[in-house]
Every structure is written in structure tokens, then in C-alpha cells.
Records
---
Amino acid sequence: MLFRLVILVALVLVGWYLFRKLTAPTQTPPDNSRSRGEYRPMVACERCGVHVPADQALTRGGASYCCRDHLPDDR
Ligand SMILES: [Zn+2]
């Protein structure tokens, strides 16, 4: 009876080892998780002070604005 138990434990250990060996390559972190949390420079609106991403901000005369309504209308 004890001999069967040892065989059973050995089979479970071998199975667990093979399972870990097969699933190990899939545990590498995906590459897109790094690009998603990428740092984007923020700029403050000259009028209301709201911070917006620099690539979405509207700039005029070296100053940044959050939206078209806050652009100075000195035309
Ligand atoms: Zn603004």
C-alpha cells in the first residue's frame, strides 16, 4: 500500500514538473503592457490651468491651451 502511495506521489511530481515546464514560456509578460503605461508629457492650460497631454494641447504663441474656447481670440 505504501509502495503504491510512493508511486502515486512520484507520478504527481513528474506531472507537475512537466506542467510547469510546458506553461513556463507563456508566463513571459506581454510587450504591450509596457507601451500602454508609457509616460506622456503634460502641459498646463494657460487660461484655466488644466493639464492636458502635450500632443492634444492647442498651442499659440508658445503657450498651451486645453481647448479651442480657451485660445486667446486676438485676431
Ligand atoms: Zn483651459
---
Amino acid sequence: MSEQSLRGKVAVVGGGAKNLGGLLSARLGEAGAKVVVHYHGDSSAPDAEKTVEAVRGAGSEAVAVQGDLTRVAEVRTLFDTAVDTFGGVDVAVNTTGMVLRKPILETSEEEYDRMFAINAKAAYFFIQEAGRRLNDHGKIISLGTSLLAAFTDGYSTYAGGKAPLEHFTRAAAKEFADRGISVNTVAPGPMDTPFFYPQETPERVRFHQSQALGNQLTRIEDIVPVIMFLATQGWWFTGQTLFPNGGYTTR
Ligand SMILES: NC(=O)c1ccc[n+]([C@@H]2O[C@H](COP(=O)([O-])OP(=O)(O)OC[C@H]3O[C@@H](n4cnc5c(N)ncnc54)[C@H](OP(=O)(O)O)[C@@H]3O)[C@@H](O)[C@H]2O)c1
């Protein structure tokens, strides 16, 4: 059986400053992990600082690192920081992503490239670098979307950009298996964060709510325990896509 405690372990959280990643960083800290809190935009710097303080307040250690993870060199710097600061990495969670709801006929080349750069390319090189740097029995978790199990309009570059994650995850699970590393994708339902609303109308928000248990959106508090489980007792999951979404979609 794989080691299950996070005490003294080191976690890298891509997009770890706010929303889902922010709560996850704080929970990892409460569980005794040292956390490398990645953030992207300058406007996320105060969130990163708050999250670092939350981890320290829980009695653990944390450091914030800024980076554009569509640049492979910056993915490497993120993991370098973890190794240089804390001596290694055990858990790598990539919560970064970008959403766009737009018909195919209106989508520009620039929008397509931007969406695939963060949702697919950054995710790929995050997994690659995690595979290089993780200690034996490490865990790699990427964030997908429950749209991977849906048949809908408008989200071609978002769901399409996240779709490769499933195959990156499967290949990495096989390729890193000899070191006991588990690799999974967590694909939440529409989540109640500022990421979701700008793409949707109030009517569509109500429809999304109506498709899940209790007529509600997915909450970050429902997803963080799933990630924590995969990072600990859930180590036997590998190569999988999990759909925590209150029954919103399945396959
Ligand atoms: N909210 C939903 O409805 C929903 C549903 C299912 C799955 N998800 C997925 O869950 C994950 C977390 O989403 P969330 O709702 O918690 O929203 P969020 O905090 O906005 O997460 C997206 C993160 O990606 C970062 N990011 C964007 N471009 C980047 C780049 N070039 N390099 C590095 N980081 C970059 C953002 O940083 P900046 O803001 O600083 O640019 C942000 O921290 C995402 O992968 C999302 O696709 C969300």
C-alpha cells in the first residue's frame, strides 16, 4: 500500500492561489503538506499571498510562484522552486484552465490557440515535468470538466481543449507506474466560481443547476475532498477521469 499521509509531503498546486486551487492549497497545508502555490496574473498575487498565509497559519510551509504555464520553461521553474525550496515533490495538482463559450463559426484562430495553449499544452507539460520531478509514489491530478461527458454546443474549444487530458492521463499512468505514481483527471460539474458565470446567461445557470442533485451547482468544497482522496487513500485510482458533479453528466 502506498504512503497515505500528507504530513511533511510537498505539493505543487498550479493555479493554487484562489477558487478551487486556493481552497485546495489551504487544505493541503492543514493536512501537513508544504505547498508551492502557483499563480498566473498580477491580479492573483494578493490571493496567492493570502493562501500562503493560510498554509502557514495551519502550521505548515508555503511559497508563491508566478508563471505563465503555457511556457514550458515556466512550468519547469515552478517544479524547480518546489525541489529547491522543499527538497522534492510528492503531489502535483494542475487546476489551471480557461473557458470560452462561443459557436465554432465565430471562433478565431487566436482564440483556438489560446484555449489549447492553457487547457491542453500547459496540462501536458505540467504532467511531463511532474513525471520527471515527483518522488516515487507521487500523485498527479489534473482538472478537466464534466463537459467531457456531455453532448452540447458552444464549448468546442473548452471541452475540446480539455479532452486531450484524458489521454495524457492514461499514457502517464502507464509510463510512471513503475515508480508507483498515480495519475488522474478530476472533471467537476459547473462550479460556483467567477470562472463559470461570464460565459452563461441566468437561464442557462438555472438549467445547469437543475441537472444536479439538490438543484445546485458544484461547489469547490465538494471537489477538494475528491482531490485530497486521490492524493492519499485513493492512490489505487490511476489513469482515470472522475466526474464529481451531483449527477450532472455521466458516461
Ligand atoms: N468553474 C467551473 O465551472 C468549472 C467547472 C469544471 C471544471 N473547471 C476547471 O476547474 C479548474 C479551476 O477553475 P476555477 O473555477 O477554480 O477557476 P479559476 O480560479 O479561474 O482557475 C483557472 C486558473 O487558471 C489560471 N490560468 C489561466 N491562464 C493561465 C496561464 N497562461 N498560465 C498559468 N495559469 C493560468 C488562472 O490564473 P489567473 O486568473 O491569474 O489568470 C486561474 O488561477 C479549471 O481548470 C477549470 O477549467 C471549472
